[in-house]
Amino acid sequence: MSTTNRSLEGRVALVTGASRGIGAATARAMSEAGAKVVLAARDEQALHAVAEEITGRGGSAIVVPTDVRYADSVSRLVEQTVGAYGRLDVAVNNAAGGGHGPTPLADVAVADFDSAIAVSLRGVFLAMKFQIPAMLAGGGGAIVNMSSTAAQWPVGGLAGYVSAKSGLVGLTRTAALDYAAAGIRVNALEPGPIHTENLDRAGPVAREHVAASVPARRLGRPEEVAAAAVWLCGPGAEFVTGAIVPVDGGLLAGMPPFSRPTKPSEEQR
Hints:
Oligomer: single chain
CATH class: Alpha Beta
Number of helices: 8
Structural class: alpha/beta
Shape: globular
């Protein structure tokens, strides 16, 4: 294992949606930073593959299959975390799902809208509802919720996803205010276009199109989002709570210049 950044040495970190993409990268990064990691998602086989990778590099990881739509499942996740490791210090609530493909709002099925809210918003509420008491018992902790740039820069046709991710911003800030004095910090990340399985399936033309919309002119990597999560959960961010941090290559900063001069003009010299 890498020992270049052991900012979470001795801590216990729980990651939901840890079976692939940003969640799996975050679990690996938490382990690299010294944490014992609990991996949660519905895909048990994929979780075990991530856990084996972590333990194969000298880390400690356990798998707890979890469906964040159900309170009993989330409660059991936290109970098994504390039972295995004795405490909970860090949580990254990354599980997302449900929803619908691009669809004009009036054509969205009620069940599809409800499914996006159930996983991506209500699921995070349930996660924090059970994580926070465990953290209070240990004297504090840090939570990172995974929102999206779509919370501030909505995407047409994705009413369920945008609503869930926007609501997650308010939920994060409310939790931060509720527990700041008790030593629990709650922040959110807003990833922009990240090269995960969804963009892989979209194909190279779609990836190039999306990358061209980013001021940095490239897609982000799951590891870059994971690094931000580790920082928010570590000692370097101890005075940061209620923050909504974009990891987006400048997407939310505004529109990049239409052209970039190759050399200074006479007026600039």
